[in-house]
Amino acid sequence: MGTLSGKKLIWGRLVYVSALRLDDGKLLILITPKPSSTSISDYGKRWGIETLFGMFKTRGFCLESTHFKDSQRLRKLVALMTLALSWAIKTGEWLNQLNPIKVKKHGRLSQSIFRYGLDHLRSIVNDLDLKQDEFLASVQFLSCT
After folding, report:
1. What angle do CA 8, 18, 20 make, to 5 degrees?
2. Interatomic CA distance for residues 56 and 78, integer angstroms
3. How many CB atoms lie within 10 A of CB 88?
4. Segment 95-102 long-range contacts (CB within 8 Å, at least 24 positions apart)
5. What is the pLDDT of residues 66-114, one digit of tens each?
6. Is 88 within 8 Å of 117 (Cβ atoms)?
7. 55/51 Cα distance (integer angstroms)
8. How far is residue 126 CA from its own chain's centroid?
9. What is residue 30's three-state secondary structure?
């Protein structure tokens, strides 16, 4: 991790620039309006939160489609979604041990562990009458996590 000394003029604005070489060799560059020795770690925390909300919204549970306004109802829904998210991730990890997700040429998985588990659980629930045993096994699996 490194920070360039002093402000730098980028696109007509004076900003501070920090960078970090990621494990995959790519360079993460952060531009901030104020100097900060914790900008990279702060961004890491933020990225985890962004990923979580992505799973709750467009990449998974479509939270934005509920249009809930009542905070109590929303709180209960987020609690339920947190359980479902955990279930999907644990299921994805288990499935990945049995049948690993393909790795693309650029080194990333072809799908996330979360998506792998969610799609599997969704397929069971969509055919519950035909997949009762799989459903019971997935519920048993959840009780062991």
Report:
1. 145
2. 8
3. 24
4. 95/120
5. 788 888 988 898 898 888 888 899 999 999 999 999 988 877 888 889 9
6. yes
7. 6
8. 24
9. strand
